[in-house]
Design a protein that fits this description.
The chain is an all-alpha fold. Helix content is about 65%, strand content about 0%. It has helices spanning about 30-35, 80-105, 105-130, 135-140, 150-170, 180-215, 220-225, 230-250, 255-280, 290-310, 315-345, 350-365. Helix 3 packs antiparallel against helix 5 (about 150-170) and helix 3 (about 105-130) packs across helix 8. The longest helix is centred in the middle third of the chain and has 37 residues, at about 180-215.
């Protein structure tokens, strides 16, 4: 006689029909499977193994809802990377132009001041292009907020631009007549250009490094974690770019300071970039992968080659020009690598979740 459904007993393991069917799990079956999986057992020394018999789900992994990223990628486009390079080039050229002015190297001073003006103009163009509408830049000037790197940077750019412009326009004074009203303008142009050049040189380091603070002040993992190294990377890159412009454009006899400053800027950039790539664990990984890794490797090679060429070949016009072009290309690729690495670090949740767990576990161990 076939027993009624209420009187049937569960199938024993190994018997036909003992396969697990959702909704028909016998009493204690789930706990038995959890125990077989290692939950709730005790290992040597009486310590519990990983897991708990009362748990119903395994430990969560770093995943996001429906495959979405934990952080939204930056809304900035590649215009911001171009803006970083152009601003750094303008800052580096202004600093070297002040050195050339003190030394009396008129050819180098003229080339660097004109390059600085062109670069800061391009920098403003790329910034406004990323903002979308020119009036947004004007609206940023209506508010002064010391705690905002973007607000401070807007004022730095607004101060540096006119100073760089006055210094560059002053170079036209040598073309004016020596007598009459234009002669007076010619006599005033030289000291006015020197004063504006000094102001631009003093503002240049701020223009070159404030963007590093702007990047580090975000939640983007590969920008936020290396906040100590980014100012040195950007500052050294700006000095190397300015030196590269001098080696490429100035007369060979006037490139001595540029050769020495190229070596200093390249050393600072390479050392800070190496620490940025290696000192932050998982967050440094995007600097080695894909496009950022390719850009950074090429930037490292070009910057090192440009520095060596600047020091060893400064008496050769051809070698100096090639070294200058290498330094400029290396500076550009460095900015592109940093930008691309930050964007890549927002697309994989592990760069957000894993460091957070490591910090939490470190605090627990410390307490």
């Amino acid at each position: 006689m076939t027993p009624k459904p209420s009187q049937q007993t569960p199938h024993q393991p190994g018997q036909p029909g003992s396969e697990h069917v959702p909704g028909t799990d016998p009493i204690g079956g789930q706990a038995a499977r959890m125990f077989d999986a290692g939950m709730g057992r005790r290992g040597r020394g009486g310590k519990k193994r990983r897991g708990d018999v009362n748990a119903v789900v395994p430990e969560a992994e770093f995943r996001s809802y429906y495959g979405r990223a934990v952080l939204k990628p930056p809304v900035w486009t590649h215009e911001i990377a171009y803006y970083l390079f152009a601003g750094g080039l303008a800052a580096g050229c202004s600093m070297l132009a002040a050195v050339a002015d003190v030394r009396g190297d008129a050819g180098a001073r003229r080339a660097l001041r004109v390059t600085s003006l062109g670069a800061v103009g391009a920098s403003a163009y790329f910034l406004i292009a990323d903002l979308g509408r020119p009036e947004r830049f004007y609206n940023m000037l209506r508010v002064a907020k010391v705690t905002s790197p973007m607000s401070v940077g807007t004022y730095i750019l607004s101060v540096f631009g006119p100073l760089s412009g006055v210094a560059a326009v002053a170079e036209l004074g040598a073309l004016l007549p020596r007598r009459g009203v234009w002669g007076l303008v010619r006599r005033v142009a030289r000291p006015a250009g020197s004063a504006a050049g000094v102001g631009a040189a003093l503002t240049g380091p701020l223009l070159a490094t404030y963007t590093a603070v702007l990047f580090a002040d975000t939640a983007v993992p590969s920008w936020h974690e290396p906040y100590r190294e980014l100012p040195f990377v950007f500052g050294g890159s700006a000095l190397a770019a300015g030196s590269g412009a001098a080696l490429l454009l100035a007369p060979t006899a006037q490139t001595g300071p540029a050769s020495r400053l190229a070596a200093i800027g390249a050393t600072v950039e390479l050392a800070a970039a190496h620490r940025m790539e290696t000192a932050h664990g998982l967050v440094s990984e995007p600097f080695h992968l894909g496009r950022p890794g390719t850009f950074l490797k090429a930037a490292r090679a070009l910057t090192a080659a440009g520095a060596v060429g600047a020091v060893l070949g400064r008496r050769s016009r051809v070698v100096s020009a090639v070294a200058g072009a290498s330094l400029l290309a290396g500076s550009f690729l460095t900015r592109m690598a940093v930008f691309e690495a930050g964007v890549a670090s927002t697309k994989d949740p592990k760069y957000v979740v894993v460091p957070q767990r490591e910090r939490r576990e470190a605090r627990q161990r410390a307490s």
